[in-house]
Amino acid sequence: MKRTRITRFALLAGVAALVTAAGASGAAQGDSSASTSSASGDCSKATALQVATRFQVVVDPTLPNPIAGVLCGAFAGPGSQVMIATFARGTCLPNFGWTAFRFTGGAWQLVPNGSHPGPAFLAAAGSDIRETVPIWRKGDGHCFPGGGTKSRVWQWNGTRFSAGVWKQATTGDPKRRGFYSPSRNIACGIFDDSTSRGVNCQSRIPPQNVTMQPSGRVTICRDPTPNNVTNECNLGDPGEGVIPVLAYGRQITVGRFRCLSLPVGVKCTVISSGTGFLINRDGVSRVGS
User: CB pairs under 8 A, 24+ apart, for 110-116?
Assistant: First the structure.
């Protein structure tokens, strides 16, 4: 019998709803509108999965959607076709690692020095590629890097991509925080930074999770099977690092969002509108207008 467990806060299902690519300019990873096709080579998530599978570079092929996004462009010089696949990973971090492919000789080929691990967010910077990653400070939880972000630019040098120096992109404001309820039955993550925006909570009893967008839109997932046998809501292991317990009557505010710990459950809202949800052992209910 499978044991229901608290996952790394921003659940895989929740993160998909909360994540936005760092740097909105250029083709955004994970946005189907950014995929391009031509007579010679198709650049899409489906193609990326086929090519990455052929080269055996998929980070987690067991996931329903192993490709988190694609970035397409002439990054290897004028007239070139480059497809960069960003890989999904079943944790609170929405992606982990990326690999570049170039369409040449009638087929997609792996770019030398074109595979890189880590939770990176990619965006086009003209004909170059901007990579942005979170910064962890000492004591930060796995899901809650508190040191801001840093970026670097990758340029084509004629045979491969060459990385520029890292530069601080955003400061370490407390824009990602998580907590347990006093009973530890509920765990929540609050995010309002350049990569994720929203609130995600889950409970062990009953097995369920809920995500909330900045608009106040709430999405609820409930596992319909006893003892969370199917694990349809992606409940799993706790995240690493120090995760505080939020005492009854206390609240946490992160950017546009606020969560309040109550004896009747955890209530999270968008501050400006008061809309949100209450999660407890009775389920999840919407609050506000």
Answer: 110/55, 110/57, 111/76, 111/82, 111/160, 111/161, 112/159, 112/160, 113/160, 113/161, 114/160, 114/161, 115/57
Beta-strand pair 128-134/149-156: antiparallel
Question: Is the whole model's pTM more than 0.70, yes or no?
Answer: no
Residue-wise pLDDT tens digits, 114-172: 888 888 889 999 999 999 998 887 767 677 777 778 999 999 999 899 999 999 887 76
User: In 135-233, which ranges are E strands?
Assistant: 149-156, 161-163, 167-170, 176-180, 186-192, 197-203, 208-212, 218-222
Pairing of strands 67-73, 82-87: antiparallel
Burial class (CB in 10 A: 0-12, 13-18, 19+), 137: exposed
Minimal CA–CA distance to 74: which of 82, 85, 65, 83? 82
Q: What is the pLDDT at residue 186? A: 92
Q: Is the dihedral of CA 206, 212, 216, 220 positive or negative?
A: negative
Alpha helix (H) ranges present in 103-217? none
